[in-house]
Amino acid sequence: MDPPAIPISVYKPLPFNPYTRAGLPGMMPIPESNNTIKTTEIVGTQIAADPQDNRHPTVIELSVPWNRQNCSIQPGFVEKFYQSSRLHYLSTWKAKLRDITTKLQKDRPPVATTRVHRTIMHIDFDCFFASVATRGKPELQVKPIAVAHGTGGSTSNSEIASCNYLARDFGVKNGMQLLKARTLCPDLVVVPYEFQQYEDISIEFYKILLGHADELQAVSVDEALVDISSKCIPSWGARSNGGQLSVSGTPDADPSRISPAAFALKVRQEIFLATGCHASVGIGPNILLAKLSTKRAKPHGQYIWPSPPGSERTLEELQGAVPDLIEDPEDGPSPPDSVNTSFSQSYEPPPVVRKSVSRKEPVVKDLPGIGYKISQDLLERLNVRTLHQLQQIAREQLQVICGMKTGDLLYNSCRGMDETTLASDRDKARQSVSAEISWGVRFENPQQVDVFMRDLAQEVSKRLKEIDRKGKSIVMKIMKRKAFIQGTWKHLGHGPVDQFARTGQLPLYTDDPDLIANEALRLLNYFQFDVLDLRGLGIQVLKLNNDVVNTVSKSAFALPMESLMNQTTLTSAMFQKSMTVINPRPLDKNEPTLLSATAITQEPPPPPIERRAEPEKPTMEIDSGTFKELPKDIQDELLRDHKLVFINENTPEVSGVGPGVMTERGSTAVDQPSEQKHGLPSWSQLDPRDLMALSTPIMRDALKEYAELKQTDRGKLDRSVLQALPPEIRAEIEQEYTHIMESHELIRKLAQTGSSGSGCDGGAVANARFQLRAPTTAMVLSHEYPPPPLDQGTSRSKTRGRGGPRGRPRGSRARGRGRGQMSDHPERVDDTRCLQDDAHSSGSTTTAGQAQPKTRAQPKEPELDADFLAALPQDIRAEVEAAHRVELIKNRRRQEADLAAQKDAAAASRQGFGGGSALNELQGPVLERPTLMGKREIGDLRVLLTQWVQSTLVEQDLIRKKGDRQGQVEKEGGRGSVETVVLDEGPNPDDVQSFMDFIARVIAMERDLERVRLMLRYLRRRIEDNERQVEPLLLPVGQGRKPAVVGVVMSWRQAFEWVLNVTRQLVVHIYGGSFDLD
DNA sequence: ATCCTCCCCTAC
DNA sequence: TAAGGTAGGGGAGGAT
Ligand SMILES: Nc1ccn([C@H]2C[C@H](O)[C@@H](COP(=O)(O)OP(=O)(O)OP(=O)(O)O)O2)c(=O)n1
Ligand SMILES: [Mg+2]
């Protein structure tokens, strides 16, 4: 498909930049609008503000040398980026810590399972990066500081990773951009990252925690959840006090149990001594309350949740604010276990912690798992902002608005209830591995994209190898610049984008960078985006193999964590390099110390919140399922005007009562005919390629018709519509739709002229920017039959008594047109084919390049080896040649390849060749399922292979020369003892060829390399079986002098090598990746 | 009902 | 100058 036509209008000067709409009247710059909405923090460079400058914004950006230097077109960009990305480090550390702590705990039976009453500690460094920066620097500790890139000039607008609490008092926040922060806090001191330090300190942190844990869950580099049930005196026993219930209570109780407060203090102290950084601790009866406690403890403190989940006291705690004026009185109500203040004397806080100690009224967003979106939904639709308000809402109502689970989460969380266990993610293996970059992504041409994607694939491959796993499925993630939206955003950032993703299957479990890159490029190419519009690219690998080598459980009895710690397993396993010793600066004696009581103790119960009676609304009972079906605006209207009571009309239809009012089937049945009324096939039956074949205006109309059909409530396109669309069309629709939403008629018209608003640079140039598509595959069917697999003319077929399995595998060639016809070759045996010969060096010339070391795929100009080609069945050979001809092997569209393969296969089977290939009878686009002797079940194939290999063993009477152990054995006629020995005649080359045909089809059509690997491995084992049965000294020298003795034309080992090598080459040509058996 | 696939959302 | 990554929970819609 051609790139979108260039609109006529490009040939006239436009009064505005068609890419950005700069110069159009009445256009407000639209601020950054991606997922993490921080619109208030957008400060940045104006892009393409000059209405005279009609160049594409990317072209403008790349005309600045510094940008060229630092963006994705620069070699080595990927590596450089990852070295500097804090978020990347955060993710990496988290994954590693999870791995390690999971492994460390796997062998160990849980200290106590299914405990009813738990004690959970949440611990988190205060302003971690910032703390590390000020560690041992008292002069910095009294200033507001922030950790960010670009510490040099005052013009820097990088993001703040972490700022200390002094800075926070100015309103500065983590994640805020520097320019904004400086307006809030002009004296902000910006300090650089120290990634290595964060790592080292984290190790110390975890070592200490593991020494105190019944169970530990790594949350992040500076944060962990620790089950300390056995270490602490139970504090929230609902109705039981600890002593009574030893069964449901806490087994394995450490006799030295202490109060949670004392425990927290001890841990904090240890951590400070080891790291020089302060961590805050929250302790509660579940994860939720522990986390909420930490929030209250910060900075530099601890908080023990005072009451059980769901209790009246907890509900009040969750509502309460602490006004600024109320300094915590010493004699305020203490938590159940009051703080052991004697500990605190030896634990000295930094000179200044922060200025204020107030606590704002807790809001919905404070709950873990509730972020911007849900919080916003609740505000808009239920007018709920605070936890207090949330507590008034019925569970069903929350579920209707936020979904079942999220509704439950909200309902339970605002009451302090949470049953989540720490152990739960113990046994969960990683599900996916990905690498994605959406900063600095700017391209001018497809070649640069290619290089970048290969780097990304390399990165993913590296990460897979690190955890010793392989994947079978990949997702290509793309961010594409939203057209026509001008605005300001961070330097070289992605700006406003649409996101796209497409899934593809890898042909086998793999971590091969070439396979991954090729598939990813194919998926990317499918979108046909202008490379100038690319803003982010990512590769995710999933469906990871599960044969993870589980750590063997070492001993029957449990090793305590403490002793595991002594092995420094954590250190070495987590970070390859040896740990640098941390020397926390001892506190100066004369440093001011300030042990604020507020930091450690808590906290008066908040004044009872006044519950205003809501103005009376009419009550309405409504089934929650019904409510959910209503359009959003109707829902909101009901919510606004009525007091809704949700009921569950279970639609039980116990006795198959009459037609339900609104059964599911009913609604489907309504959908279906309504589509047929329009004379349109259903979406699921629609082939995107058919759509693409339509001329553009017709296509557009058809799509609109579909879109309107499936449009649900106002303002929202049905997801299934979009999902069913070919991506490039989808992009177009989404974009156009955006404009409809914006109600800008002019823009709308413009949008209809091209899919990405491109076309200003002139057609020829623009063309080069689109990734090329493979030409429609017209496969050449007229090819000579491939030459013999063995060297020219020396191989032969020979009918043998037991040669080949019953009904030996036979391709078309054996039936008359192939070499199999050549029955009268001289019976000559080539000694070089003996088993003991180095088949690699002297073997047949057909297998050129056999046993080469595994080579990287050559993406650019793969050589087409004539002999290799000759080994392939005709149709596959055609495919390989076609692919090579376009020199786009790495970018081939698999869809088309599949199509072509099927077409060819169909043609092939019609013509009566193809080694038993048969199209699956299933309808729709289905992959070719090749067969061997009519079999394709793996079990059947194994039987077949076994029979085949065993069938070439023959018994032979031989005379062994006495005393000649190593020498040759003469067959018959020699002097010495007569023995019956087993010989292996080796396979019939025709059969080998047939087998190769089959394998090639599995590779090229079924595209299942895992299957290939299984079969080849099985074959190899059978061959090894044979070798074990053959008289060890009897190497098949193949001196077939007598008619009775069969000359060995080709040994099994040679045949196998040959098949393997052809396979490898085929894989390189089709997938561009390597293939190994093991 | 329950699965799968394609998203969006959240957290650090 | 700047480095907006990444894994997993879960909802919506379709297939089974
Ligand atoms: N938007 C963010 C949030 C966090 N981080 C990094 C820097 C933080 O120091 C570290 C830990 O995150 P926290 O949420 O724990 O924040 P802090 O530790 O900085 O502050 P505190 O925990 O005291 O609130 O993660 C980041 O780079 N960008
Ligand atoms: Mg922290």
UniProtKB/TrEMBL annotation:
Gene3D superfamilies per the UniProt record, alphabetical: 3.30.70.270, 3.40.1170.60, 5' to 3' exonuclease, C-terminal subdomain, 6.10.250.1490, DNA polymerase, Y-family, little finger domain, DNA repair protein Rev1, C-terminal domain
InterPro entries found in the cross-reference section: DNA/RNA_pol_sf, DNA_pol_Y-fam_lit_finger_sf, DNA_pol_Y-fam_little_finger, HUWE1/Rev1_UBM, IMS_HHH_1, Rev1_C, Rev1_C_sf, Rev_trsase/Diguanyl_cyclase
Extent of Basic and acidic residues compositional bias: 609-618, 822-840
GO molecular function terms listed in the Swiss-Prot or TrEMBL record: transferase activity
Keyword DNA damage attributed: no
Biased composition annotated in UniProt, kind: Polar residues: 841-855
Protein's UniProt keywords contain Cytoplasm: no
Biased composition range(s): Basic residues: 797-818
Record keywords, A-Z: DNA synthesis, Transferase
UniProt domain UmuC: residue ranges: 120-304
Name of the featured protein: Deoxycytidyl transferase
Record organism: Linnemannia gamsii
Species lineage: Eukaryota, Fungi, Fungi incertae sedis, Mucoromycota, Mortierellomycotina
